[in-house]
Amino acid sequence: MGMMEQNLELRQAVARVAKWEEDGTLERVDRLLHFLNAAVDSFTPEIVESLVETISTLVELGDKMMQSRLMDLVPVLMTAADTVGTKTPETKRGMTKLMKRLRDPEVQDGLQFMLEFVKAIGQGVSTGDSGLEKNG
């Protein structure tokens, strides 16, 4: 590479740095580097161990969630939310209307599911069983 080409590349680099200075890019890069240095300096072995344990627990939870029936229900829940969100609420209320709706087999199925779901949550809360193994 000749001296002329090196001179041209140097002028282009200086122009680029000058542009970054004008538009604030250099200041942002400087702040980002200070942040990264502080983050790296703060990573003690205890913090790294805690982060690894937390990430491991989250991965385990994600795996359990992906294998659970909950993932099969996500499309049903999304459709139900969209349906409910687009319907105009009924203005007619009262005990008679409630009793009529409780006789609807779909309402009964939904209530049965919700009651079993709440029961399972209650059982988990009372036994302290989250379904996740504790590390350590």
Overall pLDDT level:
86
Give helix % range: over 70%
- Write down how many β-strands occur, each being a DSSP E stretch of 2 or more residues: 0
**H/E element sequence:** HHHHHH
**Proportion of residues in β-strands:** under 5%
Class based on secondary structure composition and strand pairing: mainly alpha
Number of helices: 6
Q: Give the CA-based shape.
A: elongated
The major β-sheet equals: none
Poorly predicted regions: none
Structural Rg: 30 Å
* Span between termini: 60 Å
Walkthrough of the structure:
The mean pLDDT is 86. This protein has helices at 3-23, 25-42, 45-67, 70-86, 95-102, 105-127. The chain starts with a helix and ends in a 9-residue tail after the last helix. It has 6 helices and no strands. The longest helix has 23 residues, at 45-67.
